[in-house]
DNA sequence: TCTTGTTCTGACCGTATGGTCAAGTTGAGT
DNA sequence: ACTCAACTTGACCATACGGTCAGAACAAGA
């Protein structure tokens, strides 16, 4: 289930290019990438280990050597996107005020929506189905994270740096809006004439979202 | 949950009102309700006809008598939600300005998120997976609907009734934010101490969302 | 009552899936 | 060269699923 790295890994003494450990890491990575795609496109129930194996380029039995069960593999995929999002919080914390912090957070989340749309979809699917495998994360890490940012937002409000808005509903709006461009990317693409948003359109989108939100919280 | 009242257990004789046609309508309705729940909770791939049949209170073979295939049943569920959302557009059109129109649209969409969370989830899941069964709706009905509202928003902007914002990104933000309370309801509930939003909280949520958005578009 | 079309249902079927296993192959340490 | 753990793989299995079918039960018109 968890990462190995447990018992005796002989020496761990690095020498040339990562031999065994590096190969394992690379294999796991390609599996995770394939799994993310398949889970995003088919959902957990619709995804098959065979398809993931094919996409990763190895036999199904070998896939089970790396990830014992479908659930274990799925869990890793979900944890991956969650950690990516948590990192995006750094820009939030480092900011000196709401315009900078929230603006940078929107930029960061939008970038992730563009670079990791499948991860976002897997997360959305997981939560929509009642978070059967990451409920504990919601109750611990996510709750702590959210409470922490809410506190920052309240401080900004107390200091008169932004309008009085409920911090939680503001955060929900940020999550909803930014992730929408990943989760509903297909719908947006269809309404965009069947073509993905161009670089210019993406920049315009970020500016538009930031414009509305920042003005909405009295910072603009 | 709650056993349907359609029970056609031998007895139940009724003949006066539209006996056969009415019974069929009632049975279909209870099936659709069960299907919406199961598809929302498990996704298309994870849902089973057996579970839907059990929840609707009839044998699987009988379920197949009403809906020949899983796809046919799923399609009906998706179409149902889509039509409910289209109706919510009425308040948009009837408005004389953005504050009234967009405010009322937010209220309407939020109400639907509360009353039909499962339908919203099924739609989200469908779109996330590339809209395999309702792509034609996206390209026709939804596109027309969206273009129409965009035109209205542009007129409001031209008349100086609201700030210059891209109509499409504004609409995406409205969809994302309002549907988030249905699709990610479980996450919100968890962050709310594991309890569903109360009536008062729901009202506060609507006010908060409207506050940010309306201020964000220069109407407030 | 008889007839006819609709509705209901248990039993069944072919297929696909997640997962296992035993027999290999490989390659780093000695 | 030898050893042994790490890795690879085709074949296999039990199960569960979507869907079918033949016939029973039922309603309603004649």
- Please tell me how large the radius of gyration of chain A is: 20 Å
Question: In CATH, what is the homologous superfamily of the largest domain in chain A?
Answer: Tetracycline Repressor, domain 2
Distance between the termini of chain A: 49 Å
Q: What number of structural domains do the residues of chain A give?
A: 2
User: How much helix is in the residues of chain A?
Assistant: over 70%
Helix/strand/pairing class of chain A, anyone? Answer: mainly alpha
CATH topology of the largest domain in chain A: Tetracycline Repressor, domain 2
Description:
2 copies of one chain form a homodimer. With 220 residues, chain A is mainly alpha-helical. The longest helix of chain A has 27 residues, at 20-46. Chain A folds into 2 domains: 20-68, Arc Repressor Mutant, subunit A (Orthogonal Bundle); 78-216, Tetracycline Repressor, domain 2, CATH 1.10.357.10. Chain A is built from 11 helices and no strands. The first copy, chain A, has helices spanning 20-46, 49-56, 60-66, 70-87, 90-94, 98-115, 117-128, 135-158, 167-183, 185-191, 199-216. Chain A starts with 19 loop residues before the first helix and ends with a helix. Chains A and B meet through helix 1, helix 7, helix 8, helix 9 and helix 10 of A and helix 1, helix 7, helix 8, helix 9 and helix 10 of B. Chain B binds a DNA duplex (30 and 30 nucleotides) through residues 8, 10, 13, 15, 19-20, 23-24, 27, 48-50, 58-62, 64-65, 68-70.
Protein topology:
Two copies of one chain form a homodimer.
Chain A: H1 20-46, H2 49-56, H3 60-66, H4 70-87, H5 90-94, H6 98-115, H7 117-128, H8 135-158, H9 167-183, H10 185-191, H11 199-216
Helix pairs in contact in A: 1-2, 1-4, 1-7, 4-7, 6-9, 6-11, 7-9
Chain B binds a DNA duplex (30 and 30 nucleotides) through residues 8, 10, 13, 15, 19-20, 23-24, 27, 48-50, 58-62, 64-65, 68-70.
């Amino acid at each position: 289930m968890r990462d190995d790295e447990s018992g005796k890994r002989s020496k761990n003494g690095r020498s040339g290019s990562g031999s065994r450990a590096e190969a394992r890491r690379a294999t796991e990575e390609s599996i995770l990438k394939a799994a993310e795609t398949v889970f995003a496109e088919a959902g957990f129930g619709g995804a098959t280990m065979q398809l993931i194996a094919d996409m990763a380029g190895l036999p199904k039995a070998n896939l089970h050597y790396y990830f014992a069960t479908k659930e274990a593999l799925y869990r890793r995929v979900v944890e991956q996107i969650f950690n990516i999002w948590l990192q995006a919080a750094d820009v939030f914390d480092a900011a000196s005020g709401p315009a900078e912090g929230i603006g940078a957070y929107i930029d960061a989340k939008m970038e992730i929506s563009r670079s990791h749309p499948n991860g976002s979809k897997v997360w959305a699917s997981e939560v929509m189905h009642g978070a059967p495998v990451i409920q504990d994360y919601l109750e611990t890490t996510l709750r702590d994270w959210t409470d922490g940012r809410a506190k920052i937002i309240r401080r900004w409000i107390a200091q008169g740096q932004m309008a009085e808005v409920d911090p939680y509903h503001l955060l929900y709006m940020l999550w909803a809006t930014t992730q929408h461009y990943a989760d509903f990317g297909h719908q947006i693409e269809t309404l965009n004439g069947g073509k993905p948003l161009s670089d210019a359109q993406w920049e315009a989108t970020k500016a538009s979202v930031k414009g509305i939100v920042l003005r909405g919280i009295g910072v603009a």
